[in-house]
Amino acid sequence: MRPSRVPMVVTWLVIAFFYIPIVILVANSFNSSRFGGSWESTSLKWYIRLMGESDIWNALTNTLIIATIATLASMILGTTAAFALHRFAGSRLQRLHYSVIYTPLVLPEILMGLSMLLFFVELKVQLGLVTITIAHITFCVSYVAMTVLARLQDFDFTIVEASQDLGAGWWTTFWRVLLPMLAPGILAGGLLAFTLSIDDFVISFFVAGPGSTTLPIKIYSMIKYGAPPLINALSTILLVVTFLAVTISHYLTHRGRQTA
Amino acid sequence: MKAANRIRVFEWLVTLPSFAWLLILFIIPALLVFAITFKPSTPFGGIGEGWTLDTLRTLSNPNYPAIIWRTIWLSVATTALCILLATPMGYYMARISPARRSLVLLLVILPFWTSFLVRIFAWKVLLHPEGMLKQLLVFIGLCAPDTSLLYNAGAVLLVMVYTELPFAILPIYAASEKFDFRLIEAAKDLGATSFRAFRSVFLPGIRVGLLTAFLMVFIPSLGSYVIPDIVGGPTSEMIGNKIAQRTFVDRNLPHAAGLSALLTLTVLVPMVVIISLRRTGAVNRALIEEGV
Amino acid sequence: MRPESGGTECWVSGEPVEDANRPVSEFLEFENVSKHYGSIKAVDHVSLTVKQGEFFALLGPSGCGKTTLLRILAGFEQPDTGRVRLGGEDVTDLPPYERKVNTIFQSYALFPHLTVWDNIAYGLKVAKRPKREIKEEVAKMLTLIQMEDQAWKKPDQISGGQKQRVAIARALVNKPRVLLLDEPLAALDLKLRQRMLIELDLIHDEVGITFLYVTHDQGEAMSLSDRIAVMKSGRVEQLGTPEEVYEAPRSSFVAAFIGDTNFFSGVVAEPMEKSHVLSGLLSAAVDKDYSRLKVDGLSDLQCYNDKQIREGEDVYLSIRPEKMRISRERPKAEPHLNALQGEVEDVIYLGSQTKYWVRVGDYRISVIRQHSRFLLDEKPIRWFENVWVSWHADDGFMLEKYSEQDEKLIQLPPEEVGEPVGNNENGPAPTPEGVA
Fold this sequence. Notes:
The complex is a heterotrimer.
Chain A: H1 6-28, H2 45-51, H3 54-87, H4 92-106, H5 109-122, H6 129-153, H7 158-165, H8 170-199, H9 202-207, H10 215-225, H11 228-259
Helix pairs in contact in A: 2-11, 3-6, 3-8, 3-10, 4-6, 6-8, 7-8
Chain B: H1 2-36, H2 54-59, H3 63-95, H4 98-113, H5 116-127, H6 132-139, H7 153-178, H8 182-189, H9 194-205, H10 207-222, H11 226-231, H12 239-249, H13 253-277, H14 282-291
Helix pairs in contact in B: 1-13, 3-7, 3-10, 4-7, 7-10, 7-14, 8-9, 10-13, 10-14, 12-13
Chain C: E1 28-37, E2 40-50, E3 55-59, H1 66-74, E4 81-86, E5 89-90, E6 101-104, H2 116-126, H3 131-144, H4 160-172, E7 178-182, H5 190-207, E8 210-215, H6 218-224, E9 227-232, E10 235-240, H7 242-247, H8 252-257, E11 262-269, H9 274-277, E12 290-295, E13 301-304, E14 314-319, E15 325-327, E16 337-349, E17 353-360, E18 363-370, E19 386-392, E20 397-399, H10 404-411, H11 414-417
Parallel strand pairs in C: 3-8, 3-9, 6-7, 7-8
Antiparallel strand pairs in C: 1-2, 1-4, 4-5, 9-10, 11-12, 11-14, 12-13, 14-20, 15-19, 16-17, 16-19, 17-18
Helix pairs in contact in C: 2-3, 2-4, 3-4
């Protein structure tokens, strides 16, 4: 019997659906016309004008600083959390711990954003880059913890015993066995946290103060009130950077899976 | 017993950092939302002293049921469309050669990693009255020159499906990959047609993936705010828009808190399903492992 | 951190390893060791000693406490009571990393992120040995396990048998005073298991250190060990050489767990009279060496009386299948020969031997006939033939009856008796046998 072609057709149509808007956006960034309804001429004028927008570069700097701090902090918190969840699985404390880690993953972002805004207002904390960073750490912890936990579940803890059996104490075992084995998971979690932090708009918008603009907040205000062609150019740069990063890491992990 | 105590202390030691952090910055703020619902607002956008039922009274405004209703139906429609498209994709991706699968997976994951705002903006450009799609549709006579593709519920639904689709594809693909396709051959051997085998063997076989996809799409959809804000209009507002308006435009935080509390309660129902499902570990595995 | 004892380092060259003053019989000693998990007694007041250089097996069904005993020696479990001594030193309270013992884990527990070379070198690196020495020692080990050309592979690039060998090398390179092997062959398929069995034996001969081997497989234990401790429910049921344990089981549990046997359930009657035995020619003289056993539905059976058994006691009579003879004609009357008539129910031809099942009353007796003298014109015994089954009274053993619980332990097929592989969700938490 010939297999049905429906699944294949749907798949490639959806992939086309994914990429058509992106392709048009990228094409438009080289179009000197304002809305891309007609093609005036191919030009880099929007890119050149983008270079002069110092606001954007400030916002990018803020975003990178926040993402770096949030990633490092959430890697530490998330890894200890995953370790506790795995090592003491089933205890009453860990069941509670798990719920607390899990809920932020599924809760709509806007609820987290508003609740943290209320919290900071009640405590009379000055809104700004610090509050954005704190908020980012909070939602990144869960993602790192879950990523590391998934790796831990495939982890044979006998090798910890094996290490001790071969004369290594707790410290040596941690550095020579546990950490190297968990490193891919922790790094994957960190990469996820970094991307989510760079991309986050909703939560950042709620807890941002005057003057503390991140790149997504800047893009949002440009979309709402600004010049579309500039965003085309900026979006294209962002797309190229993420496409390159994701493709490289995709093939690295896939090659890694074949050999390791 | 001394050793057992040491282990208890160790458990607390490794649990405390993340637990305390989330307790203070996630659980307490979430409870605060409910408390502030009963606080008065101040004219300067702050939170006043004492307790009041003002917010509850304004929530009974007849505008709100319509918005809540729209929020729910847009979320249900988004979820249904996403699962409808993602299921054949999961089936297809699980059956192709590993090299091809790796490519399709990459193509699906790429948009998931790209900037959320950029993806929404791409649609705004495409649907814009002077944009390419509109001109194409007018040219082939599918729509009148004065119809607007933007700023309506249809545009919101389209973009919501666009942004949420990877969250449906990944768990369904993960479940399909583990599915034993010999079962389909067995069903056909027993006389089932292809479609019947798909419906009575494949779908039940990936039900955990389907359920995960449902939750992964439905709950975030309920809280949508940016999409209706950018591609929607006044007739396609969702609860999220109202929360943002009360926060940023009216500076009425207790009112925003009240709406958030309402949204939290709406989200709570599917959440309970997750809590009972998460013991299988299927939910987080599907989300995280495949997403990375 | 580790106590260095210079004199014990030279095992590879086969030189005398231990201080001559110390009696070798008390090299490794468990004294009154107990371990409970909740209400379950995993190890119940076990005392035993292992000699220097011995290949010693702990054999028993799942949940008998053998793995717990091994983990207590390795230092992964703390006994509730009792002491463990190694070469005269009390090691009961030492952490695993300060004990000069090394373990081969059932799952091998090779470090997946390290190459074969780095896995083997791990213990030496941790002990901060000089680089040159590490290189030499690892090279020696790679030669021993014949994997010189695989040194730079990662564990998931080598086969199951090779992983096994790396695990052995990784442990041996540290020159442990005792090598602990926890069901090391359980994860291998039958053919590989047989090959590794021989290799383990060769390695033991070559390095000459003490092996403590935990297994549920009586075949492994019998073929490798100098001595075997058969364990049941946390206790040592019998301790002896393979021959002793097989030929002179001290309980019906041991008789049934090790090898095949036929059990007859009966009551001890008064001792045989010699006169009766020798066809009534001599006058009545009582032969106290043999007991008479009344078995329901069969004629009385005789058995050599090697222990104090009183009249009227309920016992099992155990006879190994290969001790029985099968013939068409009634065997000639001999003193102390038991003979029963029955019908052949099943025949399995196995080449070197044939296995028969003979129905006698309520009993289905299994008999093995070795083909030591095969004649082509011989007419083999077939199904439904009437035959005689006979054995000498010296070949039987009278043993106390075992409980129903024992029966369950014995009847489990070996595949299911396999102990759970060390870890599960609880990570390094204790995984008591039988509880998990």
